[in-house]
RNA sequence: GGGCGCGUAGCUCAGCUGGUUAGAGCGCACGGUUCACAUCCGUGAGGUCGAUGGUUCGAGUCCAUUCGCGCCCACCA
């Protein structure tokens, strides 16, 4: 017998190994194998590669769960399915980790030198690189691990070179001095996307720009970064600003340095803001840079790569940027050049990694001229070639691509793809090559050296969907599996990654990289707060999996997530879903237990009870709903439907009735067991993409048990594993379904009504009571269901009578109504006339309220304007209520007579 | 400055193309050791869907305005 509790610990790793060993993770119709049919359309996902040295967090859990769900679903549908796994070298993040380790060891990357340092990083990668992969496997990810890739693999590195050279040759990559975002701590340039603008409390400093010709006269200027005064090369005012007309064209003195700079007029300056006069620092501010270009201003750099003041800063040379700010302002104060400072909230640029303040600086870097690529990427989404889910992100995507700036791709790091450019020390020309050159392409000199920089990590990520399949070679994998089908990832990397993949793919392969972009939300804590160590609200998925099982965690993530919306996770939810897994397990145990001695089938045709028909109809309805929801990518909703069906209908009702039907024996019992099996089988199939472990384990037990029973035919075509079993296909609704469902719902109603009363009257749960049911049109149905009714409502089956109609209402009984059925419980000891009258009249009152409402509704324009079926439905409802009400009135009248 | 999301029971959230007494989990109250399950079973209390106005026979579900929370993009010192 199966253990009472589902022991996920022993099941999870065993099943994962089993699946993998059986080769179920590998795509059917493999293009590298004989018999491949190129016309069968595959389903392909490339994994968003996690950082190779990262540790599993809930974000990973969410995307792995979703992608595994999609993958398993398609696989079960019989589609050749491939999920390509892999990891990302994550330039900055990984380099930082290793640098931190070196620091702890009392050394540094500079001390080691480039080659030794890279050896260290590779070592680190080997040491930690498998951790994240192991963790993803623990989640049940059905990836084809033989196709695992790493962005610094030889193949992918070739792809990066090909892409770089291709773009260079097309003139879309260039090198030059530009104003870029410099991270002094990381000692590298970063792209615009890697800068976060954080609103912070700062100060606005007002000071004097004295006129060179007359130092008593000044222009007041405001700034948030006074230290940049040292690199000012102009003061700008609006051309129409009356206050400053006289100054335009004159020169003013840079405070302390007393350098003479011009006063210029530019439309950019806002007259309303600050003093209406703007200091211009083309070397350290993007706006000023542009103004500087327009006016041909000198470009000064007052900060070096460590953000220390350069010789431009005169007396402040060698000081840290913030130090210099303080000192300069103090000196200006002493010199009487300060007007005032006020509190000011503004956006401060900070590094996405590390959070330090970014300095805009002039630096020579490599850039991608991205606008031509963006244009194509916009088109494919506009045309619907690529679908984005949820749709609203299309707008976000358009907006970004329409206003895109050139992409700074060089990083002054060591860990990454080295830029494939060599400089000649003799002729000074560059050589850009796919293969490492041994000599200058231009003069043949051997005196060449490679560009020391590496590429932005996202450059290689942008090639991911095709580089992982073999591109630039046209391998069988690339030919068959590309373009991929779904790109499932977080909306937070729509620009970083998704947009760039689309641009690169269109440029490199001429094809879209994927057909559908499914964007999930971020995982927050149970109150919608970002998880962070400082808030102590971080949930470690590994702990939770240890505690409650992988299925519970997966199901929670899947059911709690809607596309594009953040998910709030709480342990309580996981617990609830652990209970669900346990429920599934136990329901399965019950079914399997019943296979041990199956009653004989008598007669030819099937002998289904109302409950059998009902659960079957419900099952079919569920399949239809799940199918519909999966087609709309509403996986969470689908999961909830399955949950509700399995627990609320199959386990709570059908299993309970089945017990009774089996106990009665005979042919009916036989068909009950058959139904139990079939519905369980279908449920497990639907549930498998959500909770693969418990369903697989249970299903295999079920299969074995069925095959060893007289009902073995049912499982005749079941494969060896649920994972590769066929997905339930929706069928057309059959005409009998509706009738059976509503009849059964009447039975449920009766049972609930009686349970209700029992609870109200404090009748001991186990105590069997007699009952008289007046069935009217449903008499036959009720007669048939006495067994079920009795067992679920704890009636004494010997003392249940069903009659069609009643001459006189039994005065001493408790009277109940369930739709068209009257129920009388002869419980003389418990009847209190006053109490009963109270109960009946309050019920009647409530009902009359409904009747009034419906009567009004039906006499309103509703009756004419609403569609006929809707109106009919309300009419029927009204008729039902009226019938019930009249019964209640009769019952009430009887009680009056008693008095 | 532009754009987006959210605001539904005490808490956390569902609610597809508008259809007419609004759902779940947790929590709460009451009652339960029948051999699938106390990680359970039964019963119950509790929201009129942030506010206002509109479209409609009919709105949580569409439109407008508004309040509150959050996010993204953007070169106002």
List the helices and strands and how they pair.
Elements: H1 8-22, E1 43-46, H2 58-76, E2 81-84, E3 86-87, H3 91-104, H4 109-112, H5 114-138, E4 149-150, H6 154-169, E5 173-183, E6 188-190, E7 195-211, E8 218-223, E9 234-237, E10 251-253, E11 260-265, E12 277-280, H7 286-295, H8 321-334, E13 338-351, E14 359-368, H9 371-382, E15 387-389, H10 393-402, E16 407-408, E17 410-411, E18 421-424, E19 430-432, E20 448-450, E21 454-455, H11 457-461, H12 464-467, H13 476-481, E22 484-490, H14 494-508, E23 514-520, E24 523-524, H15 541-548, H16 550-559, E25 567-568, H17 571-593, H18 610-631, H19 635-664, H20 666-687, H21 692-707, H22 735-761, E26 769-774, H23 779-784, H24 786-793, E27 795-803, E28 814-818, E29 821-825, H25 833-859, H26 862-865, H27 868-898
Parallel strand pairs: 1-2, 3-4, 9-11, 15-23, 22-23, 24-25, 26-27
Antiparallel strand pairs: 5-6, 5-14, 7-8, 7-10, 7-13, 9-12, 10-11, 14-16, 17-21, 18-19, 18-20, 26-29, 28-29
The structure holds one RNA strand of 77 nucleotides.
